[in-house]
Amino acid sequence: MTRIEDQATVLFIGDSITDCGRNYDNVGDLGRGYAMMVAAELNFRYPEKQIQFMNRGINGNRVTDLEQRWEQDCLAHNPTWVSIYIGINDTWRWYDSKAETSADEFYRTYRELLVRTKEHTNANIVIIEPFVLPVPEDRKGWRVDLDPKIHAIRELAREFGTYYVPLDGLFAQASTKAEPAYWAGDGVHPTDAGHALIARAWLDAVKV
């Protein structure tokens, strides 16, 4: 039996991986990535539930960007499910422009998002951890900055009892079956196959 209730509102929020080309002028557009794939699968399985899906991913966002728009883009919709996927840009901006988000700042800001969500909604929360693959080779160096953020997210998932999608390990595992670029051409943005991996992992985590 699915955990998704009748007439649920499932809100996906995050950065470009969630955004995935959505049309900002169409509030119901889900983009072309994992959010659309999850919605399609759930609507196929449970048409009688009339689940509503929303995508509020925005290209380039870091956790501080989510903090600034959390009221408008999350809480105001009173979702019954909130799926959060953020973190890779908090690492990427350090390597391309020296705009640092320390692991402590990342943890504190992310935690505040969870606190506000718990205080203002009864939503179930799904946390998706960021990943990076060694494409190109210099992405390997990003682990120094990204790994502490992944550990912070895992701590928060335990503290708040959220659903959790362990993407970093899943993409590493998938890369033993096909080269990393098959899953994410630049080590960050998933291919169609990569998005399908995320969607399947999301559905498995929520046990639907």
From TrEMBL:
Q: Which CDD domains does the entry link to?
A: SGNH_hydrolase_like_2
Origin superkingdom: Bacteria
Query: What EC number is given for this enzyme?
Result: 3.1.-.-
> What's one GO MF term for it?
hydrolase activity
SUPFAM superfamilies in the record = SGNH hydrolase
Domain (SGNH hydrolase-type esterase) ranges: 12-197
Listed A to Z, the keywords are:
Hydrolase
Tell whether Transmembrane helix is among the UniProt keywords.
no
Specify whether Phosphoprotein is a keyword of the entry.
Answer: no
Pfam families the UniProt entry points to: Lipase_GDSL_2
Q: Which PANTHER family match?
A: SGNH HYDROLASE-TYPE ESTERASE DOMAIN-CONTAINING PROTEIN, THIOESTERASE 1/PROTEASE 1/LYSOPHOSPHOLIPASE L1
Protein name according to UniProt? SGNH/GDSL hydrolase family protein
